[in-house]
Structures are given as structure tokens and as C-alpha cells.
Amino acid sequence: MTTTDLKPNTSRLLPRALLAFGALVALTASSQAAILAAWDDFGSGLSADNTLTGFSGTIAGVSLDSGNFGSNDGTFGTIAGAISDGDGVFVRNTTTALTLTITNNTGAAYNIESLHFDFGHRGTNTPSTFDVTYTSGGLGPSSTLIDNIDVGGVAPGDVGDFTDFDYTLSSLLSDIVLDDGESAVFTFNNFVNRTGTSSSAATMDNFLIQGTAVPEPSSVALVGLAGAALLLRRRRNR
């Protein structure tokens, strides 16, 4: 056996090192989605009941119905963890718009990844359709229709297992990065009942916005250094 035969196969080592480097980059760049703002108990009025430190959230344009009208299914959309107390907000008619605002004051940028909520009819003149829109703020583009929702087949009810809605914002908005100091506004409006009049009434509950921190450039650089060190070590051990 010659000396050349004892050398490792560098054509295999390099791809393996690059794969390891790629895994390190993916691990650093990804993290589990966190609750940025959630409304379920409405113990703080129309401000978010739970927020990630540095975030705040408010709902406007609606009435608060504590203990009388709301979802009790224990989920934000289909995400488990909501309080099942039946507290919700009351949307009165088509001239009313529910606006949800989330503000980032964490000192870092965050990806606003998903929006979740529960919807329930109320009374006899309940809406059959309504719109969900990303209105304005640090995301984009502004005035993007998230969905025109047809809920005409859902039975009315004051407290119960409301209809769940989940939206992945990365598939709907071209910009989901909310920088420090920025806000994002979502609007729920154009509630039209089955007869086309403005006497619609609806209850909404269990709002949730989830997201992840955008990796710092320094973190990516550290991963790059780790990958370079790995390649250098491989070469020295040949």
C-alpha cells in the first residue's frame, strides 16, 4: 500500500463539511414560533392579554362582552392554549371595523408569521361574509386582502365552539418583517348579513399573532466562522 492510499478521500470530506455548515446555518436561522400577542381572556380590556416582552397589542372598534359572548373551544384558531371562558368582542354592523394592532418595541426585528382567531355568529341577522385585510404598518404591501370569508353556513350562538381561522402570512404578504418601533394593523370589516343589510352582529374571540426573531447578522457571521473552522480542521487532519 502506498502513502497516497493512506490519505482520506477529500472529495467526500468537503461535501460532508459543507453539509454540517449548512445544518449550523439552518439551526441558527430558525426558531420555534412564539406568541407575540394574544387576546382570549380580555381581562385587560381590549389590550392583549399575553405578549412577548417588548410587544404590545390592542383591538379597537368593537364592544367588550365579558362572560356572555365568545368561544369556549380552548384554541386560537386551531392553536391550543386559549382560555375557555366565553369572553369575546362584539362587532355590531357593517359600518363597524374591528382593527387589531401589534407593535414591536423589543429592540430587534421579528417575522410576523401567522394570524389566528375564532368567529361566531350572534342573533338572527348574522353576517354571511366579511373581510380580513392587512391594512398598514411595517409589513407589506399595505391594503392586502387576507381573505374574504364566507361563513353563511355556520349556526348562530352566543357561547360555543366557534369557527377557527388560521393564516400563514408569509404566503400572503411579500414583507413579513416588523422592525423595532414598527406596528402592523389588521382590519376585520365589511360584515354583510344574509339579506344584505347592515344589521349584522358577530362575536370574535381568541386572536393570536405568532412570529420569530430575525437572526442577527453577527449570529450568521459566527456560524460562518464555525463552518470555516470545521473545513480547516478537516484539511489539517488529512
Written description of the protein model:
The protein has 238 residues and is of the alpha+beta class. The protein has 2 helices and 17 strands. It has helices spanning 10-29, 217-236, and strands at 34-39, 50-51, 55-60, 63-65, 70-71, 75-76, 79-80, 88-91, 98-104, 110-121, 127-137, 144-150, 159-160, 163-168, 177-178, 183-193, 202-213. The chain starts with 9 loop residues before the first helix and ends with a helix.
The CATH topology annotation reads as: Jelly Rolls
**Cα shape:** globular
Topology as H/E string? Answer: HEEEEEEEEEEEEEEEEEH
Stretches where pLDDT falls below 50 for ≥5 residues? 1-8, 10-30, 219-223
Structure annotation, total helices = 2
Structural class: alpha+beta
Specify the CATH class: Mainly Beta
